[in-house]
Design goal:
- The protein is α+β, with helices and mostly antiparallel strands.
- It folds into two domains: 148 residues, Major capsid protein gp5 fold, CATH 3.30.2400; 211 residues, no CATH class.
- Helices cover 24% and strands 24% of the residues.
- The protein has nine helices and 18 strands.
- A seven-stranded mixed β-sheet has the order 7-6-18-13-10-12-11, with helices on both faces.
- Pfam families: Phage_capsid_3.
Length: 399
């Protein structure tokens, strides 16, 4: 039950329009508390899920400045000899209105069962709105990767062979991930490869791309020196997590994990930390649970939660599998996902249904979710064009 509802005089909703507004605010806050994406979300460009407030469902164009890359000038040289280029990156997001509603039994039945329908409906609608948003985030994250790490039994990760589609990134990656066999499981080597690709600005085929900006996580003070900690976040499903725990190298890392108990992240909810990058168990996608996708999730289920207006091509989970089902994880950096929506959820109460015998409670909100994939706003070709801005896919056998 939403604890904040106890401070709202729900019975006065007919006379006070602010009651519905306050309930909507409580639902919005509670939906984030239950979400695994909450620690990664914020308004700043250094958050994993960057949020933008919009007032309507008109197309929205979030912008991002690329870092300056010029060499500048020295000494008495005039500035105009070597001007730098201020590169503004942008993409277009098409938000949509999503909503749901519940209708009560007749008031006499609700009274017999001691049900406060508005409170119960608020709680259920909170879970629905959280699942709707989080599933949209997962589907956007997992669609159409442009950089990946594919696990390998022998070497830790696979290196793609030259194929006819070498120049076509969108065909090459599904062909590459389809090579996964049953023993190609998640390992420390694969995760370290993903971190290396992110830091060095490399693609899976060792071609140069651009470094991924890490996420700001926390401020650490040691010996009077304050250091801002930045890291990538590794998101894996429960199948990949179990495989990682069976990796001898991971087990060796745990032996030297340092302090036991609450002072160590390994024993407070985070599965592990490799090269300063936390690993999170995001669960498995099912009809009842929001988790990460795998190739056995129905394509129709995936497409239901993907806003196709925000993507150039749809790559369902099944497209990444060959003879063996695969788990789909990801390394994410800053501004990996973009979420545009209104500041709080709209909550509606209607007691006129069925001649006033039944009550309807509903919610809706503006929601636009997309993987960050920016293009240069000034029309000049950029290394960022049509490329995942801060995501690397992690593929392993689903066993």
């Amino acid at each position: 039950m939403l604890q904040g509802l106890n401070d709202i005089n729900i019975g006065n909703w007919k006379n006070d329009p602010n009651v519905s507004v306050k309930i909507g605010q409580q639902i919005e806050a509670a939906s984030w508390k239950k979400s695994p994406f909450e620690p990664l979300t914020g308004r700043g460009s250094d958050r994993g899920v960057r949020t933008y407030i919009v007032e309507d469902n008109q197309p929205y164009r979030p912008r991002l400045k690329a870092q300056l890359s010029g060499s500048g000038v020295k000494g008495n040289t005039d500035f105009n000899v070597n001007f730098d280029n201020l590169e503004i990156l942008c993409q277009t997001i098409y938000p949509e209105v999503v909503g749901n509603a519940i209708k009560s039994e007749i008031k006499h039945y609700s009274a017999m069962k001691h049900i406060d329908f508005i409170k119960e409906a608020s709680d259920s609608l909170t879970e629905w709105i959280q699942a709707k948003r989080d599933r949209a985030l997962v589907c956007a994250l997992s669609n159409d990767f442009t950089n990946v790490v594919v696990c390998d039994e022998v070497h830790g990760f696979k290196t793609p062979e030259k194929t006819a589609n070498l120049g076509n990134l969108y065909k090459l990656i599904p062909e590459f991930t389809a090579q996964i066999q049953e023993r190609d499981t998640m390992s420390v080597k694969a995760i370290r490869r993903a971190i290396f690709q992110a830091r060095a600005g490399l693609r899976h085929d060792n071609k140069q791309s651009f470094p991924l900006k890490p996420i700001r996580s926390e401020m650490i003070t040691t010996g009077g020196i304050t250091v801002q900690n930045y890291s990538y976040i590794i998101l894996l499903d429960s199948f990949a997590i179990n495989q990682l725990k069976s990796d001898p190298e991971y087990q060796e890392i745990q032996k030297y994990a340092g302090d036991r108990g609450a002072k160590n992240a390994l024993f407070t909810g985070i599965v592990g930390v490799i090269d300063n990058c936390p690993i999170l168990d995001m669960g498995v996608w099912t009809s009842m649970n929001v988790g990460l996708l795998n190739s056995e999730v129905e394509d129709a289920d995936f497409e239901t939660h993907l806003n196709k207006q925000n993507v150039t091509r749809v790559t369902p989970p099944s497209a990444y599998a060959g003879s063996v089902p695969v788990s789909i994880g990801a390394l994410i950096g800053a501004s990996a996902l973009v979420l545009a929506g209104n500041a709080s959820i709209n909550f509606y109460i209607n007691e006129t249904e069925d001649a006033g015998r039944k009550t309807i409670c509903g919610v809706d909100r503006i929601l636009g979710v997309s993987k960050a994939r920016f293009n240069s706003a000034n029309g000049v070709p950029s290394v960022y064009d049509n490329t995942d801005f801060a995501v690397i896919g992690l593929f392993s056998a689903k066993v």
